[in-house]
Specification:
This protein has about 725 residues and is of the alpha/beta class. The protein has 4 domains: about 260 residues, no CATH class; about 70 residues, no CATH class; about 220 residues, Alpha-Beta Barrel (TIM Barrel), CATH 3.20.20; about 100 residues, Lyase, Ornithine Decarboxylase, Chain A, domain 1 (Beta Barrel), CATH 2.40.37.10. Helices cover about 50% and strands about 15% of the residues. It contains 26 helices and 21 strands. β4, α20 and β5 form a beta-alpha-beta unit. α11 runs antiparallel to α12.
Amino acid sequence: MNNKKRYAGIDSFRYIAALLVIAIHTSPLSSYSEMGDFVLTRIIGRAAVPFFFMTSGFFLIKEYSYNEEKLRAFVKKTSVIYGLSIAAYIPLNLYNGYFTMENLFPNIMKDIFFDGTLYHLWYLPASIIGAVIAWYLVKGLGFKKAFMAAMVLYVIGLFGDSYYGVSEKLPFLKSIYGHLFQIFDYTRNGILFAPVFFVLGGIIARNPGQGSWKKSLVKCMGSFLLMLGEGLLLHQSGYQRHDSMYVMLIPAMYYLFSFLCSFTGGKSLPLRTAPLIIYMIHPMVIVMVRMTAKMMSLQSVFIENSVIHYATVSVCSISFSLFLALFIQKVRNKGSIQDKKSKSRAWIEINLSSLENNAKELQSKMPENCNLMAVIKANAYGHGAFAVSTYLEKSGVKSFAVATIDEGIELRKYGIRSEILILGYTSPLRAKELYKYRLTQTLIDHHYARLLNHQGYKVSAHIKIDTGMHRLGFDVSDHEHVIDAFKMKQIKVTGIYTHLCASDSLSSEDVTFTAMQIRRFYQLVDIIENSGYKCPKIHIQSSYGLLNYPELKCDFVRAGISLYGVLSSAKDQIKTQLNLHPVLSLKSKVVLLRKVTIGESVGYHRTFVASKDSTIAVIPIGYADGLPRNLSSESRHVLMNGNLAPIVGRICMDQLMVDVTGIEGVKVGDIVTFIGEDHGKALLAPAIADNEGSISNELFSRIGTRLEVITVE
């Protein structure tokens, strides 16, 4: 599973940068203001390509290591895109007479390595060369010295670009740049221009989004204003040979990128692919728009009107790119899932559509103005905290609950921006982290609340009330201490709740006990409000609280096991029937088939002895992956090719054996299902847990961290 944080700010700006590139090549304001068009395309628009370089550097040099696999993968991928782009534009080059130039071969070599075989394609070789230079600079010198070295290259390029007027006046420099321009036409290339932005991206990646977004925005705007002044002065003086490299472009891009890193969260599927496609295809779209306009005699509208021309090219480029990006994403996801399954020995499959269905089903039974609080503790009950939390937040869930502060911090680092309630104990000494990561802490009793209050950090909190479970919480009769928590200077009480310890039972005794808990809690709420305090948001129900007491009017429902589509036990009775779908499947594969003759034993302590000649399949999953060892019994089964096959011998730490005698067509590589469905048959977690004398909650949370999580929709 990919646990990388989703940078929504970066992903969104990709589109803006792509549109700026189109503007550079279509001059959208040229029909109305030459100076306005210069400012847009030759100053503001110059942020586009450095942004793309910084984005690549941000993810490529983010966690630098001496393993060059990431660099090789980047160079290979970019080279393939470059090769395809060169091939795609050959017809246009033929039309333009590109292949009739003098000194064709050396010019082609120069274009391939530096200038691009079409005017916009220089970005791709610059990305490859810039990435390699930046990578080895950081490897050899560290970030600080690498930035200084890259800046030296940038300054050299600067005097062959926007400040070339200075170089022209100095014979020595003019001679040097004359020789350089025989190698490449522009100094905005992979050697002199790109490396500094790759290194800058890597520098920001070491501590992204930590500063104030407001300060970054102000500094970004200030830097761009200074760059505007710089560009206008250079333009007026006639110093510019080209206009890609400005002194103030460096700080402007640093603060712009820092600002964008402040915005994290989920991203829509085509975001990262579509802008690159826009960049690649827009010259082709420009040609098509111009040809179509001429054929329809609409040049005055779609060509001569620069704004309409720009808008038409942009809309066509975006539309085609989104379509192609969605297609690529679909193919890539399908191939990626199959590739992961083929490479993995065992894996957890998470069906995100089922997760979304369950959230909607639960919300449909909640009272008006009651919200779902998704419980993500214990790695989302073994389902993968990253996949579950990010998908639910994108689906509209705005409240989450975890067991520990470290689980809460993990969600923040994934990009979760919604409220996160810590249900368990956190040392008061970690109050600074509670404040820093905007986590809401449960107050487990009055003494704890006082200790937390004395740490000097403003902390949001929910008060836990013990109404009969006798675990965490203020005693329900301790009105004075509960009210005192509202008075604490550093504690901001935003919620109050209790836990119904027998809500999963419909026996008369447990129903009576639960009714007593509910009555006590609401009596305390009345006392708080009668004391002059506005009672904060309340929540009583967990999964079974909603399923058996849906009539309760609360602000939240803490949904745990039900969110994942199962009950704790197959024997549980509930009042409210919902169309919940299991989210998790646990699968592995056959890695070896053995022939065992009658009388031979299999596994530790020879607990299985073949009563006939048998075929035994060896499966690479064991109790270290979360399968309970006491499932070692011929009465416990797995699903294989739609058939139930018994587990034989003792389950080992890393593998187990299954008797596949009589099942036709079993071969190495066949999928084995431990939890989930296969060919219309199902092995469900509640039934499996019942067989081992446990509950689904425990079974799921045992599933080891060794297993890869594969998400499907």
